[in-house]
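The protein record quoted in full:

***
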Amino acid sequence: MQIYWTKINQIIQETPEVRTYLLDCPEGFTWEEGAHTHFALEGFNAGEKPNRGLIRHMSISTLPNETSIGITTRIKEQCSEFKAILRDLTIGDQVAIFKTHSNVPLKREGKNVYLLSSGVGLATFRPLVLEYFENNEQVNQIHSLNVDSSKDFLFPTIFETAADKKFSAQFVENREAYYSEVKKLAEDQEGLFYIVGSDEFLLQNIDLLRQEGIPAEQIILDKHARQLPEFLPTELTI
């Protein structure tokens, strides 16, 4: 396993509780849209065993052509030790990234794509949307639906409806409104449904989509293949 040590080059306050940490791109480090990585703070590997309290599984919210690795996360006033340390880091401080992989690259199957997310989960979809804007080949259109009770919606200059690009973005403030919209989207029985959020959020979305007749193979989750049977029937995740 290769560990890439790199430095923070910019910190963007996206909303009162959400920050994006932009990291220098180490030589040889590559990724694609929808990628996630293990993001670790200094000291995580100082002992005989890794300190898992200093490691988090994070989505990369940028594309390679943006030249920096973006890590977007919510940091509340009351937070974990990891988030408290992260909150105090500044430009020039060092962090580590390793085990980078993408479970949710943009599928180009000539279908409509629906991006379903909760809160800061939208960060996973930011690079998919940018990739689509750069090349929309074999993607009919994209619709993003995000629920966030904070009302401080992320990336408003990217997640805004653009009819000329066949892209639409919708934000709602509560789960009731959100699931009502998901039902409407599920009327497209051929669509591809990407879901990002907590495990509970994933399961609720999957249950609703399956009830509405969406096949498991059209539901894409940011999970390793070995984890998929926990969310979707094993025989339908092949």
The domain at 111-236 is CATH 3.40.50.80 (Rossmann fold).
